[in-house]
Design brief:
The structure is a homotetramer. Chain A is mainly alpha-helical. Chain A contains 9 helices and no strands. The first copy, chain A, folds into 2 domains: 122 residues, Voltage-gated potassium channels. Chain C (Four Helix Bundle (Hemerythrin (Met), subunit A)); 92 residues, Helix Hairpins (Orthogonal Bundle), CATH 1.10.287.70. Chain A is flat, with a radius of gyration of 20 Å.
Amino acid sequence: MTLERRRNILKYLRENLWVNLAIIGLALLSVGLLVYELSADLLIEQVAFIHTLDLIIAMIFLLDFGAGLYLSESRKIYFKQNWPDLLASIPITGGIYRSFRVLRLLRLIRVVRIIARIRRVAVVADKIADNSSKYIYIASITATVILAGAVSFFSVEFGPNPNVANFFDAVWWAVVTATTVGYGDIFPITWEGRLIGMVLMFFGIGLVGTTAGLVGNHFLNRRP
Amino acid sequence: MTLERRRNILKYLRENLWVNLAIIGLALLSVGLLVYELSADLLIEQVAFIHTLDLIIAMIFLLDFGAGLYLSESRKIYFKQNWPDLLASIPITGGIYRSFRVLRLLRLIRVVRIIARIRRVAVVADKIADNSSKYIYIASITATVILAGAVSFFSVEFGPNPNVANFFDAVWWAVVTATTVGYGDIFPITWEGRLIGMVLMFFGIGLVGTTAGLVGNHFLNRRP
Amino acid sequence: MTLERRRNILKYLRENLWVNLAIIGLALLSVGLLVYELSADLLIEQVAFIHTLDLIIAMIFLLDFGAGLYLSESRKIYFKQNWPDLLASIPITGGIYRSFRVLRLLRLIRVVRIIARIRRVAVVADKIADNSSKYIYIASITATVILAGAVSFFSVEFGPNPNVANFFDAVWWAVVTATTVGYGDIFPITWEGRLIGMVLMFFGIGLVGTTAGLVGNHFLNRRP
Amino acid sequence: MTLERRRNILKYLRENLWVNLAIIGLALLSVGLLVYELSADLLIEQVAFIHTLDLIIAMIFLLDFGAGLYLSESRKIYFKQNWPDLLASIPITGGIYRSFRVLRLLRLIRVVRIIARIRRVAVVADKIADNSSKYIYIASITATVILAGAVSFFSVEFGPNPNVANFFDAVWWAVVTATTVGYGDIFPITWEGRLIGMVLMFFGIGLVGTTAGLVGNHFLNRRP
C-alpha cells in the first residue's frame, strides 16, 4: 500500500461518523455489561455469555488499534498517542479470572479497560470540537469524566458500600462530587473509591475554572 | 389590520410593564396554587376550585400565546421562540387527572407547565437587562432558576422525602445546591429529584463562572 | 463654625486611626456582650450591667452619627450614606425588652444593630484600601461578613439548635458556609438562620468570583 | 572564604537536585515518623528510637540553616526569608516531653516543626517553576498544602475524633476540604482541627481562583 492510501484509510477510520459512533456504542455497551454483571445475581451461563460479548468488544478495539498502528506513518508516535486503546483491548475472559483468584486487582484492570474505552468518546468530542463550539467540547469531556468516575466508583463501592444500591447512585455521586456540592448522602468508604473521588474533585475545580475562563473571555470579547 | 398596527400591539403586549407584571403575577400564583394543593389536606371542592383557577391561568397564557402568534410577522419564528408558552397553557383539569390515573407522569406535566410559566420571569428580566445592568439580569435569572428548581423539587420530593416538610425546605435545598454548598441536611431521594438537583448543580457552576467573569471584567475595565 | 473648620473636624473623626480603632473596638465589644449574654446563665444584675454597657455603646454611636450629621456639608447625602449608623445606635435597654414581650423580634433588632456596628469595620477597611492593597480590602470585607454572619446565626440558632454549643461553633459554621464547603455538621434549623445562610452562600460565590477576578487580572498584568 | 566562593557553595546547596531531594525526603520521613508514632501502640524503646531519628533530622535541618546563614551575603535578609527553617530544627526529644508534661502544646510545636519542613517542598517547587510550567508549580503548592493540612489534622484529631482511624483518613479529609466538596463524613471536632480546616478552605477558594485565572489567561492568549 502506498503511504497516500494508508493515510486515507486511517483518516476514514478516525473521522467517519459511523465508525466513531460504533466505537462509542461499544464503549457504552461495555459500561452496561459491567454494571449489569456486578449488580444482578447471574447464572454461570449468563456470566459466560457476558464475558464472550466482552471478549468480542475487546477484539474489535484490538483490531482498531492494530489497523491504526499498521496504517500510521510513524508507529512510534501512534503508539505514544493511542496506548490507552491497547489497554481497552486486554482480552480477559471469565476462565482466566477464576484461575488467578486475585479478584480485586482484576476488577481494577477491568475498570481501567472500560475507562480506556470511554476515553474514545472524549477523543471523538475533541475532533468535533475543532469544527464546532468550545461549549460542546467541554460538555462532552465533562460527561465522559463523570461517566468514567461513576463506572469506576460503582465497580469498587457496589457491595462494600451499603449506600450504593444501583448504577444511578454512582452517577448521582459522581455529579455531586464533580460539581463540588458534596451532600454526603453517598461517599466512598474503600480507599480505591476515595482515590476516584479525589480525581473527580480536582476535575471539578478545573471545570469551574474552565467555565469561569470561558465566560470571562466571552465578556472580554463582546463588550469593547 | 395593517402590519404596522399588528407590530405595535405586539410590542405593547411584550414591553408594557403592567402586562409583564400581570404575567409574572400569574406565574407566581401558579407556584402558590401547586404548593398549596400538594402540601395541604384539601376537600374535594377546594381541589376543584384550585383546578378551576389553574384552568383560568392556563387560558390567559394560551390567549397571550395565541395573540402573539396572530400578531407576529413570521409565525414560524414566533413559534420557535415561544413554544414553552404553549406548554405553560396546557389546560389539564382535575377531572382528566382522575380518568388517566397516571398520576406521576401528570405531576411531571404540571411541573413542566409551571416551569414554562416561571420562564416568563426570565424573559422579562432579559428585556429589562438590555436597558440596565448585567447584575440585575444575572440576579433575575438566578432567582428564576432557583424558584423553578424549588417548585419542581417540592412537587416530586414532598411526600416521599421525610426531610421536606414545606415549600421553604425546597427553596432552602435549591439555594444550598445551586451555590454548591451542599450541607446534606436535605437531599433528593427520588430519581426525578436527583435529575433536578443535577441541573441546579451545573447551573451553580455556571453562576460561579459568570460571577467570576463579571468581576474579572470589572477589574480589567477599571484599572488601566 | 466655618465650613472649612467643620470639614476638617469631620475628616479627623473619619480618618484618625485612634477614633476608627475605638469604633471597631466598640463594635467588637457589642458582639462579645451579645454572645456572652446569650450563652451564659446570668443573674438579673449581670444582665442589667450588660444592658447598661450596651446603652453606653449605643450612645457613643449616636453621638458619632450626630456629630457627623452636624458637621457634614450636605445632611441629606450624609444621611443616605450613613443611615446604618443610626440603626447601630438604637438604645434598647433590658427594661423595654420585658415590657414589650415580643422577644424574637427584639432579638432580631439587636442583631441588626450589631451588624450595623460591625459594618463600620468594613467602612474603615474601605478607607485603608484606597491607600493600600486590594487584598487587604477583600480580606477585611470577608472577615466582617463572616463575623456578622456568625453573630446573627448565633443569636437565632443558639438554643433551638442543639449543634450550636458556643460562639466558635457559629464562626465555624459561617466559614464552612461562606467557602461553600458545607460539611453539614452544623446547619440552620430556624428560618431566620436559613436566611442568614443564604446571604452567606451568595457572598461566598462572590468571594470565589472576586478571588478569581483578582488572580486573573494579576496574570494578565504580569505576563505580557 | 571569598564572597564569590561562599555564593557558589550556597547556590550549590540551594539548587543542587540531590540536596533538594534529600531535604524533601527528610521532610516526608518526618511526616511518616509522626504519623507512625501517633497511630501505633509503641514500646518505650521504639518511641525513643523514633525520637532519636527525629533528633538527627532536626540536626540536619539546623546544619542546613546554619550553613546558609554563614554563607549568605546578608545574614539579616537570609534570616527574614528562612526563619521557618529554624522552626523546622527545634531539637525536642522524648525526655523533654515528659519533663514538661504540657503535651498538647508540645504536640502543636511538633506539628509546626513538621509543617516548616514540608514548606521546603514548596520552596524547591518555586525554584523549579522559574524554569518550567506554572501548572507544575501550582500542583506542587497544592500537594504541599494538602500534605501539611493532613498531617496537622491527623496530629490533633487522631484520638479525640472517632472518624479518623488512620493517616489516609486525614489526607481524604484535607482533599475533600481544599476542593470545597465537604461531604461531612469526616470533620474536625477540636478547635485546633477547625482552625486547620479554615486555612484549608480559604486555600481552596484561592486554588479555584488561581485555576480560573490560569484558564482565563490561557483562553485570552490563545484565541486572538
